Amino acid sequence: MSSPWKIEVYRNWDEVDSPDFLESWNTLIDAAPEAHVFYHPAVLKAWTDTYRKLQNINPLYCLARCSDMRVFLPLILWRRNWKNAFTRVIVPAGYSDYDYHDPIFTGKLTPHLMESFWSLIEKEIFGRDGLKYDRINVSGIRYPGKNDVWIVEDEVCPYVDLASYPDYEKFYLSLKKSMRYDVEKKIRRLKVCGEITYRKYGKDNVQAAREALPLFLDAHQQRWPNAYKAPGLHDAIIANGIQAGVIHFSELAVDSKVINWVYGFVFKNKYYYYMPASFYGKEYVKNSPGKAHISYLLEDCFNHGITLFDFLRGSESYKYEWDSKTANVYSYTRNSNRLHARFINGLLNNKSALNAIINRS
Questions:
Q1: For residue 186, how many other CB atoms are within 10 A of its CB?
Q2: Strand 247-254 to strand 135-141: parallel, antiparallel, or no bridges (unpaired)?
Q3: Measured distance CA(105)–CA(171) in Å, rounded
Q4: pLDDT at res. 354
Q5: What is the pLDDT at residue 112?
Q6: What is the pLDDT of residues 61-114, one digit of tens each?
Q7: Phi, psi values for residue 86, rounded to 5°
Q8: Where are the domains of the chain?
Q9: What is the pLDDT of residue 130?
Q10: Residues 291, 182: contact at Cβ < 8 Å?
Q11: Dihedral through CA 13, CA 15, CA 20, CA 26, nearest 10?
């Protein structure tokens, strides 16, 4: 019996950069009710345009059709360097800077549809003899297939269902009394230092946002010194994303001095809490400006019809203080059975042997 699916795979950057492809991509994501922001063209192209200068990556952009349903899954074939034994890995586009990598569906998702689509990808992409790869690592999937290859990742994604409340006041009153007291105490202490200002950057001040970005990234680096940031990536996301209306870059200031930033996304009535950072001067450190900032963000979300506040991946305790629910994410990992791949993957699994080869070279 023939498959109901038809699939096209785009394998070079000229194809996916063409105006016709970009127009189809924008049309598709606009028509997809559950699309996440990380596959929005403005956001994903910022990532691919950046990493094409840094890594040897090529697209495996899959566009599938089944009746009136269209599905888009942008994958990448990544040829890694000598330090990683020149492995060829299939990963989602956006790996590992973005949190979600679910395919974009233009219709209603059902478990049967998801199982059918992932079976198609396994057969037509992962199972093709002509596609030479050593490993597949598709992570950050909220709607997985049904076979045993899919596993639940350790990280969960806390979120707040704002649609359950008519307004911010009702939501705020639903929080634990101790939490409300703590938020109010933090805000009172900040007000002792000066006037609090909440500001977000929009289409009319893109340049100001780009000028603020280095200060934010420096504060983030001080807090998380080992977090890799590809050169130019976040400037490209900010520049492209604000113009496209999907970036929500905000700051909290006391007497015009910025003490906290949150760099997030907003798309299809969902807010994505992506990267926070604080300026921890001694007069602010005890006042937890991040907690105050989240309260302003949540109120802003209610004022603009946002129905879900997504804290994204990570189980940090502060996320649960906001009465968060959680969602799981899944990953699909598979090693090639080709002789070359078995040898390479064996080396990667035996770091001491790999290091000995590297040191001799």
A1: 19
A2: unpaired
A3: 31
A4: 42
A5: 87
A6: 999 999 889 999 999 999 998 777 788 999 999 999 999 999 999 988 888 888
A7: 55, 35
A8: 6-156+329-360, 159-327
A9: 65
A10: yes
A11: -50
Query: Could you report the per-residue pLDDT of 105-121, keeping only the tens digit for each?
Result: 998 888 888 899 999 99
User: Structure tokens of 336?
Assistant: 């090639």
Locate tokens 């002509």: which residue?
130
**Phi-psi category of 264—alpha, beta or left, where left has phi over 0 and alpha has psi -120 to 50?**
beta
- pTM of model > 0.85: yes
Please give the Cα distance from 285 to 308 (Å, whole number).
Answer: 29
Q: Is the pLDDT of residue 352 over 50?
A: no
Query: Which residue in the block uniquely carries the two structure tokens 């566009």?
Result: 63
Q: What topology is assigned to 159-327 in CATH?
A: Aminopeptidase (3.40.630)
d(CA 263, CA 249): 5
For residues 292-309, give the mean pLDDT.
Answer: 97
- Six token digits for residue 216: 């934010």
Half-sphere exposure of 351 (CA within 13 A, CB side): 0
CA angle 9, 11, 17 (to 5 degrees): 105
Q: Lowest-pLDDT range, 16-30, 154-168, 268-282? A: 268-282
